Amino acid sequence: PFDIMCLFYFCVCDYYLYIASRLVLFFFFFFQAEDGIRDAQESRGLGDVYKRQDYDQYRQLCLGATLKPVAPGAIEGIMNNKSEAKTRRSRRRGQRGDVRHIQETPPEPTEPPQDRDEFDRQWRAASGDPGRRFRYLRMIPRESFARIMQVEIGFDLLGEIIASLHECWSEETDAPVVLGILTALPQAFRFDLAVTFLGAGEKSEARSLIERLCAAGALGDEELAGLEAHFQ
What we know:
By secondary structure, this protein is mostly helical. Helix content is 64%, strand content 0%. It has helices at residues 2-39, 46-49, 55-64, 74-80, 88-93, 116-125, 130-139, 142-148, 155-168, 175-184, 191-196, 200-215, 221-230.
């Protein structure tokens, strides 16, 4: 019986020690977690920033700050005058709505181009003026135009040339000029590729030019078949 009693008391003591150790660990981790949550809170203003300073230090900080009152209606006036705010750009160039783009139209060339670079430069200068472009094309000799067009031609340039000829060719005396241009264009590099990217309207204008050349008697049978094959 004595051995049984000793074993019983030993078990009871061991049980209470186990419970006590678990309670100690529980309270230890609980307060550690609570401190971590408090430290992770976001700042709620100057009170949190200066929570480790006493009241006198906080009062001296507020007294030393320069606080100027805002006059009634000042904020509304700022919002109303926001569109009239002067910036470095507006002082130098004026307001956005007042910007005026002054573009000087370069004079028309008086001599034919010597190379493709000069041709492209003068062609871009005449952008939006088909009449000026047609006069520029008429100025270039047939052999010079064929030499200039040996460089690669894009579908945009090809379409612009066709549109200028179709819109501005009015005199039958210019038929040789139009014929020389249409026969020189197929010699350009990647001409066939550029034709495939032309729109239906541009191809229709090219066929109209060929028909007018036929009506003017400027095309033979071989030239007609060749132009129709190139601009189909």
